[in-house]
Structure formats: C-alpha cells, structure tokens
Amino acid sequence: MNRTMITATNTLAQLQKQMDVISHNMANIDTNGYKRREATFTELIYQQFNNQRREQAEVNRLTPNGIRQGTGAKLAQIQLVMTQGNIKPTDRSLDTALTKEGQLYKVLVQTDAGAEIQYTRNGAFYLSPISENELALVTADGHSIVDENNNPIYINADAKDFTIDSMGQMTVTMNNGLPQMFNLGVVQVDKPQFLIAKGNNLYGLPTNFDQLNVGVDDILTDLVGPLRTEIGIQQGALESSNVDMAKEMTDLINTQRAYQFQSRSVSIADQMMGLVNGIR
Question: Using CA atoms, how far apart are residues 40 and 18, in angstroms rounded to an integer?
Fold first, then answer.
C-alpha cells in the first residue's frame, strides 16, 4: 500500500477517537460535576533517510537531518481536566458543591466483583429507605455515599433537617431535637490522569499499579483528620460541568478539518497510483 495511504489511515482512526472525546464532552455539558476530557497526540515511529552521500552536504539545508518519513499520529492520552465549574444555587439541603479543584466524594458501588469505592464530583444526594426506621444517603443512581472511614451513611428515618458545613460535616436534626453527625468522605486527587472513567459520572482507580509504578497514595489523598480543613463544600448548590461549548465546537471543527484532509490524502494517493498504472 502507498505510504501516504498508511499515514492517512493511521491518523484517521486516532482523529475519530478525538471526535468521540469531544462529543462526550458536549453530551455532558449539563451533567452536574462533570469534568471534561482532552485528547493529546504524539507522532508514530518514523524512518530516517539521509539522502546525501557526504554528511557535509546536509549542512545548511532546510532538512539538516535528511528526510524523515512518518507513519501518522497517535492519541497519546486522554487527560481529565479538573478545573472548577460554575456554582449554581438550588436551595436544596441535600445538594452540595465542591468548591476546590481536584476534590471528589467517595461512593460505595456494588459491582460483580463486590463492593468498590469509587469517586464522583456530583454532589446531588438523596435519601433511600433501607428499613422502616433507617434511610441511606445515596447518589441519583442509588450508590451509597460513605463517610471518611468508608462506611455507608445511614440516617434515622425521623430526620427533619440537614446541615452540611464547608468541611463536609453533616448534621442531621431529628424531630425530637437530637442530632446525628457524619463526616462525608472526600479525597484530593493529585494525579487525575490515572483515574479510570467508570460511567455515570464515576471514577475508579486502576488495577495495574505495578505496571504504572504508582501507588494509591500517589494518585489521591484521603482528607481525614487535620486534612479536613482543606475541604471546600457549599450546601444548597451544585457544580456545573466545566465544559465550554464554544471551545468544544472549535476543537470539533478543527478535528473534522484534519479528518477531511487525511481523507483527501487517501483519494489523491489513489489517483496518483491510477495515473502510474495507466502509463504505457
């Protein structure tokens, strides 16, 4: 196959992945706490051709290293962008917004392999009855919100009022005036590039720590004890996604133009091969 076709088709597949990332961002522009993803590219392996017999002849040329013939571009990584989204008031006592970048709530998710701690930025909490006298604090999908010790938060069904301070301490007032107190589980993400998207606005940790040469403590920090003073939470509000529609549309147009250019390269290479084959 023509080298031009190989280069173009390799790049086309990677550009399609970038368009998928952009489309995913645009689809989640109204998702509470959603963090946009950004694709970065790197070049694939190339071949070096020194087309001058003498090295001195390469001096002062436009291509001093000879001719480099590449094989296209590759999607290097999909980076999670943790910048702060806009805060929108809701005046609902179980709505909370994290006001500091890189912080996530801890959520207990039941998977096929068992219960697993995952993470979310969405602070819209709800109450789900688990017995006649007890309620569980959950996400919109029914996953349990956990405290700083990774225990699900269970609230007496006689709860009347909820107060959550800026450091994540939740105080539940009962009808009889007695309080229940919980510390919401919050982590600080130090290396967001290692988080794995689990779907439904949830993130998890990788399983191949040995290959990545990192540990859990390198990726995130549990904000417990004295570190709870670093937590920033606003009650009665939700954080919007950090997706900028204007930027996403611009990136999408640029990616589509690049895709169009690579597609045209395949067509032109095919026409050139047809001309060569037609020579008598």
Answer: 8
Chain segment 232-249, per-residue pLDDT in tens: 999 999 999 999 999 999
What is the residue-wise DSSP string for 109-172?
Answer: EEETTEEEEEEE---B-EEEEEETTEEEEE-TTSPEEBBTTS-B-EEETTEEEEEE-TT-EEEE
Find where tokens 């961002």 sit.
25
Distances from the Cα of 81 to the Cαs of 20, 39, 124, 229, 243, in angstroms? 16, 10, 21, 24, 10
181, 169 contact by CB (below 8 A): yes
Which pair of structure tokens corresponds to residue 97?
A: 């917004």
Query: What does the alpha-carbon distance between residue 111 and residue 113 come to, in Å, rounded to a whole number?
Result: 5
- Are 260 and 104 a contacting pair, CB within 8 Å? no
Structure-token pair, residue 148: 């700083």
Q: Count CB-CB contacts under 10 A for residue 73.
A: 20
- pLDDT value for 48: 63
Q: Which residues of 157-177 are buried (b: 16+ CB within 10 A; e: fewer)?
A: eeeeebebeebbbbebeeeee
| Residues 66 and 72 sit within 8 Å (Cβ to Cβ) | no
Q: Length of the chain in residues, anyone?
A: 280
Which residues of the chain register pLDDT less than 50? none
